[in-house]
Design a protein that fits this description.
- A 10-stranded mixed β-sheet has the order 10-16-11-12-9-8-7-6-3-15.
- Helix 2 packs across helix 3.
- It is built from 19 helices and 16 strands.
- The protein is an alpha/beta fold.
- Strand 1 and strand 2 form a beta hairpin.
- It has 2 domains: 357 residues, 7-stranded beta/alpha barrel (Alpha-Beta Barrel), CATH 3.20.110.20; 116 residues, no CATH class.
């Protein structure tokens, strides 16, 4: 397969080869993991899958003047100012970003069968390269492309700029998804991109507004993703409104919009709890050990316990995870509770003729209340009236979407940043998307790079102060490029 350029005019390759990316994904082999698997799924009792999420934003901190400072990775800024706050962790963070490229080969060479799913934001990829740590990318490339190792790891797609789906304009979120695919293919090759079948949303945030949720899932499906990782408490059973009864089995996430259009995707459920200790101490493995095969769609199948955590944040993740992961990989190899990756597991289910239609249905949380008060097809205006009515009647009803911590709304309280982001998104839509500007146009690529960088969740999460200033400045630069 042909290789994409990694950088174009000093900007990461995040657009311009849309047709090639689409054709590459459409030509993906039906099975990319199971054929290389050393696990006998017919004989195991249960399975465990873990994912590591890695992210650093881009910030205008490469200079003393905010308006002219270069856009650099936050990790680089931490490295250069290790005397401030927690910045002394920067060297450890850097090691965290590379260490699976050391641990996986070591375990494989010892005859073990490790598994891990990796999710890195595009801004982190770029930040590592920009600060001169191409060596980290090259080491990751080895386990991504070497047939001896790539069956053991699974890359998950992500929004390029770590954008949170419920509060990111739907057309921009699609740009994030496509930009990540471009960038990943440029870094690791088109063949490696074909193996990216699952999607990991930033902050595990799932939109629950019917129209936004529909567009979110449609974007993933249109971009070739087969499954998405979701948090247990962000979905409900359509009939009962309760949480999934079998969280250790795959589900089908169905989203319907105000016009009555529906779209669905396989959902792998991340069980409740966001504490990095769960993954750092490999708790999902020990939970899986207590489970038995289940009867499902006329077959006996092993349940899967799935969990994700920040791959670098917190002392337990920095220090305790590597030896614990290696210990569990040793124990799990050849056992009846192995470590697996989600696509490998799904390919097994497909191989025994289980289909997406066999999977139990879930929908975004709180939608049961909507469908009880709204006639599907009545349109967006009527839907908004129903939503406002429900908000007045039930103070717990919300339509911003869930996140890792259910009490944290990704819209409320962040008006300072969101207004700037929405203004910038509107300008990009009017001056770049609507006119159909060529995605290979240098100004388009530069504006897109800044737009996506401005929409990182970090600017929403911090809300006020310097980080708000960073977000506003990147938005200003985006508009300046466009006008």
């Amino acid at each position: 397969m042909s290789q994409l350029e990694l950088y174009i005019n000093d900007i990461p390759n995040i657009c311009g080869s849309e047709q090639l990316i689409e054709e590459t994904i459409k030509s993906r082999p039906e099975s990319v993991y199971l054929n290389n698997s050393d696990i006998n799924f017919n004989s195991i009792r249960s399975a465990c899958a873990i994912a590591l999420h890695m992210h650093q934003p881009l910030i205008p901190a490469g200079g003393s003047d905010l308006h002219t400072a270069a856009l650099i990775g936050n990790l680089q800024d931490m490295m250069e100012h290790q005397d401030i706050g927690d910045n002394h962790n920067a060297p450890v963070f850097l090691w965290c970003y590379r260490r699976m490229a050391e641990i996986i080969p070591q375990l494989v060479q010892e005859g073990k069968s490790p598994r891990v799913m990796l999710e890195y934001s595009g801004t982190l990829f770029h930040g590592l390269w920009q600060m001169g740590h191409q060596d980290v990318i090259e080491e990751l490339k080895k386990i991504t492309c070497d047939p001896a190792y790539y069956p053991k790891i699974e890359w998950l797609g992500a929004p390029w700029g770590h954008a949170v789906a419920p509060s990111t304009p739907v057309q921009d979120f699609r740009l994030h998804v496509k930009a990540w695919q471009h960038h990943f293919a440029a870094l690791f090759g088109l063949e490696a991109l074909q193996r990216v079948k699952g999607f990991s949303p930033s902050e595990m945030a799932l939109p629950n507004h019917p129209d936004v949720a529909y567009e979110y899932v449609k974007t993933l499906v249109d971009c070739g993703y087969q499954w998405v990782l979701i948090q247990e408490h962000t979905v409900e059973h359509p009939d009962s409104g309760h949480s999934p009864e079998q969280p250790h089995l795959p589900h089908r996430l169905v989203c319907t919009n105000s016009n009555g259009d529906s779209v669905s995707i396989i959902a792998i459920i991340k069980t409740q709890g966001s504490d990095t200790k769960l993954v750092a101490q490999m708790q999902p493995y020990y939970e899986a050990q207590g489970l038995q095969r289940q009867d499902f769609a006329g077959h006996s199948i092993p349940p899967i316990v799935t969990q994700i955590a920040d791959g670098e944040n917190g002392g337990v993740m920095m220090n305790e995870f590597p030896p614990k992961f290696q210990e569990v990989a040793n124990i799990a190899t050849g056992s009846d509770t192995p470590l697996v990756n989600a696509s490998e597991y799904l390919e097994y289910l497909f191989s025994i003729d289980i289909t997406i239609d066999d999977l139990p249905i879930v929908q975004p949380i709180k939608q049961k209340q909507i469908w009880e008060n709204y006639q599907v097809g009545d349109g967006a205006e009527k839907l908004e009236q129903v939503i406002q009515k429900l908000k007045q009647e039930d103070h717990q009803f919300h339509m911003e979407g869930g996140s890792w911590t259910s009490e944290l709304s990704w819209v409320q309280g962040y008006d300072d940043v969101l207004s700037e982001m929405e203004k910038t998104s509107s300008v990009f839509n009017e001056l770049a998307l609507k006119p159909g500007v060529d995605t290979n146009n240098p100004d388009y690529r530069s504006a897109l790079y800044h737009l996506l960088s401005s929409q990182t969740s970090c600017y929403r999460y911090w809300g006020q102060g310097l980080w708000t200033d960073y977000g506003r400045e990147i938005c200003r630069r985006t508009r300046e490029i466009l006008t």
